[in-house]
Amino acid sequence: MNLELIIMSVVEVLRLLRTKISNQTVGLKSEQCFNIGLDSVLTKEKLAVIRWLLAETYEPENMGTESFLNEDRKTGLSTMIIEIGPRLSFTTEWSANACR
């Protein structure tokens, strides 16, 4: 079932959550996360380059150094965060090319 979730829309996953887990599920949010390993603190200039590389062209405000999913926790809502993705030690072709 995990492989099926990758190609489903958020609406489809929410429907599955309500049917198979709990009909009290009221919402589902997702975000992409980029984990970057550093040996030292970034300069403002280098951080700006990383933001430029990773941010959406028409929605740069949706790029941050912390998860946006934690906002609901701060408001006191009952939330659960599930992270799905490759191991941090795994390098994709995209990330290898971005490092060159």
Automatic annotation (TrEMBL):
SUPFAM superfamilies: PurS-like. GO terms for molecular function: ATP binding; ligase activity. Keywords: ATP-binding, Ligase, Nucleotide-binding, Purine biosynthesis. One of its GO terms (biological process) is purine nucleotide biosynthetic process. The keyword ATP-binding applies. InterPro entries: PurS-like_sf (IPR036604). PANTHER family: PHOSPHORIBOSYLFORMYLGLYCINAMIDINE SYNTHASE. This is Uncharacterized protein. The lineage of its organism: Eukaryota, Viridiplantae, Streptophyta, Embryophyta, Tracheophyta.
